[in-house]
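Let's practice the habit of predicting before peeking. Look at the sequence and jot down your guess about where helices and strands might fall. Then scroll down.
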Amino acid sequence: MDTGETDNNDTILYLHSISPAGRLLPSASRWNSIEMDFNLFPQSRNNLGYDSLPSRFSKSVDFKLTVTNKKNFKCFIYASLAVVSLIVVLCLLLHFLPNKQRHHGATKDLTLALKQALVFFDAQKSGVLPKDNTVKFRGDSGLDDGNKSLVGGFYDSGNNIKFSFPTAYTITLLSWSVIEYHPKYEEVGELDHIKSIIKWGSDYLLKLFIRPNESSPGSATLFSQVH
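Done guessing? Here is the structure:
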C-alpha cells in the first residue's frame, strides 16, 4: 500500500494485490503502478477504481508481460546487455582499426595489370634488344644461336632455352587478343607495345623453318628448340 499527494494536497492510496493469494504488495513508485504497465507486478486497479487517475504520459501501453522466474529474467537481461556490448565493441574495432586493404589502396586498375604482363615478354627477349625495351637491366644475349641464324625470340621461364612450340602458341594467343580487343589496347596506350612483341616472336618463328633448297631437295628443317 502506497500513499501520494496531489497538487490539492489530497491523499491518493495505491494498492496492489495478487488475486489468487490475496496478498498486498506495495508499489515502489507511481511509475511502476500507473504510467508504465508491463504487467510485471500483479495489478488490481480496476477493483479499486483508480482507472480515472490522470497520467503524466500521453499514451499508456500494456505489453501483457509476465515474469514467472525472476532469476531467469535477470540472466536474460545480463545476456542481452553482454551481446549488445560485444556488438558495439566489434563495430568500434572495425571502424577504428587500420584497414590494410584500404591503407595500401587496393586497385582495380586492369591497365596496370596488362602493362606488367607485357613487361614480362620484354624481360624474356633474346638477341639484340631494341633501344626502347622497357626492361633496362637486360642486355643483348644469344647472339651466336644457330651460327647467328637463330638469333631472337624469347627465353622460356627465365632460363636460356628457347622453345619453338610454346613461342608459337604464345604469339598466336597474343595476336588473337589484339584481333578481339584492338580498341581496348589502343585505349590504354598498349597497342604498339603488344604489336612489337608479336613481331619480335613472329620474326623468330620464321627463322625456325628452313624450306627445301637446291642443295637438299624434298626436305625441310624445323628447329624445335635452341639453347
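How did you do? The CA atoms of residues 183 and 191 lie 8 Å apart.
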